[in-house]
Structures are given as C-alpha cells and as structure tokens.
Amino acid sequence: MALQTELKPEDWRFCVAPMIDWTDEWCRHFHRLLSKRARLYTEMIASPALVHGNRARLLGYEKGVNPVALQLGGSNPAELAQCAKWGEEAGFDEINLNCGCPSPRVQSGDFGVVLMLSPQKVADCLKAMQDSVSVPVTVKHRIGVDDQTSYGFVRDFVGTVHEAGTRVFIVHARAAWLKGLSPKENRDIPPLNRELAAQLKADFPDSIFVVNGGIKTLSECQTELGRFDGVMLGREAYNNPWLLTEVDHALYGDPESTLTRDEVVEQMADYVDLVQEREPLAARTAVNHLMGLALGLPGARHWRRLLTDPALWKTKKAGEIVRLAWKEVKPEAGMED
Questions:
Q1: Catalytic residue chosen out of the listed positions 27, 99, 101, 125
Q2: In this structure, which topology does domain 261-333 adopt according to CATH?
Q3: I want to staple 101 with a disulfide (CB 3.0 to 4.6 A). Which of 75, 112, 174, 200 is the partner?
C-alpha cells in the first residue's frame, strides 16, 4: 500500500466544487488568480475516458495552480487505480471519487450516486486507488438516494468506506432522486439536511468532513466551519467569482486582498491569448468563465453580450475582446482606472 500523505483539515477548509463542463483548466486558472488558498477540483472525468481517450487533454493540468484535486467517475477498481496513478503523476494533490452525480449518463455507467447503493464496491474502488497513490484519496457523496434517506443509510455507507481507509468525506447535504428529477433539479429540490451531515462528523471524529450544498455566502461558510472541517461552494463560486477574493482573508486570516477587477481583466486577457495560440477552439470556453466577473455591477449584461459577440470573435483576438468588453463596462460600473 502506498504511503498516504498526512491529512490536514485546513487543506479542505474552502473548496470550489467539481462542476461538469465548468471547472476545466481555464476556469481553475481564473479562480486561482482570485484566491491563493481555495482547493480547486476538476470536473468529473470518467475513468473509461482516461483509459481509452486523450489522456493528456483530459488531465489538462497547469503547474502553479495547486492545490487541485482530480475527480474521477467509475466503478472498476483496477481502472480507477490506474487513473489515480496517472492523476498523481500529472501533479494533482488529491484523487476524489464521485458518488454524488445523479445524471442519466452516470446511472447507465454504474457510477456517480448509484454507487451509494453498493458501499462495498465503493470501498473496494477507494482501497485500490489508495494502494496506487500517495496523495489523499477522498469521496464525494450525497446523504441519500431515492427512498434511502434515513441517517442509518448514509452512516452505513460512510462506515463501510471508512473501514477501507478513507478519511476525507465531501458530503452534498441533499439526497439524490434517480427518477423524476433532472441533475439541475437534484441540486435544488431535495431538501437540505446539513444536520444529518453534521451527525456524520460527530460519529466519525477521526475523519475530515466537508459540507456542500446551498451555501452562498462567506458568512454561511464561517457558520458551517463551526461544525465541519471544510465547506465547498459550487455554482455560487462560479457565477459570482469575485467572492473568491474575500476567501483568503475571511476564512484563513490572510491580509485583505488588494486585487482589482482591472488587474484580473488584464491578466486574463493575456492568458486567453495564450490559450488561443495553443488551442484556438478553446479560447471561447476560457473567456466564458469570465461572465460572472461583473455580476452585480451596472453594465454586467453588456459585458456578457460583448464577450459572446460573434462579430467580435470573427475579427479580434480573445484578449482584445476581453479588454474591449471591460472598457465598455467600466464607465457604467464606476470601476477603478
């Protein structure tokens, strides 16, 4: 068995959730500009895709953006162990197994939240992954599946996985309904129950528990850190990325950020030009991650419109579009020069 890195609860104090089609390498570059402390996660990558697909592209990794965790989806222990090893070799600081995604795609592939119905299979997968790497191997899961919503169900799931050696649990504090709800509805309709998640923390005191689901402000984060080791934000962090500039001070006690939106725009404009040179088709995706930078400011709608203007994309480079869009927003927003 590989020697696992010593676990420190503060490493998971604030995390940005894995989000399919969103938390790619370009998004992570942007988020790292805003917070030096946040733990960032890749979008979920299916282990068969890594085995049979373009591994270098799927494991797109940028040095200097750590800490970054690789989230895998799958249910084959040997395959997951190999993918975990590739992830560690690529430079990721953590390998996470997805046991929470309810989409039809993962249901048909026997991974995601479906795995919560087979806790021993999950334990076998995590044990194989732990044996192949020295970085932490963790699991992200829900508090229930369909009608399996009693505390005993999730306690037994965590207990089985705990016996296999896992000590970091990221708990989405909603159950998942496999039938009748879309993935989007599964993020909002099943009721939140962070108290149940907190009971897991009390019953497994030697483990690290991170709570996910419905958290929107740093004030809420501070409250939840009174009973959990860490908090994880998903869509709020993506849609309102400027919130990340307050994380290091509010949750870690670092000096207040002096970063300005102007500085971020300049750095990202340079960055998306490099992306465009390397992968021309990726530039628009990289720019799309900037949509929320003007959230709440006058001119935000104009900013978003210009970033996606087809006419501009036909005649200008990516960085030029970003600078032009921001220049148009600033007078309305009253931003700094």
A1: 101
A2: Four Helix Bundle (Hemerythrin (Met), subunit A) (1.20.120)
A3: 112
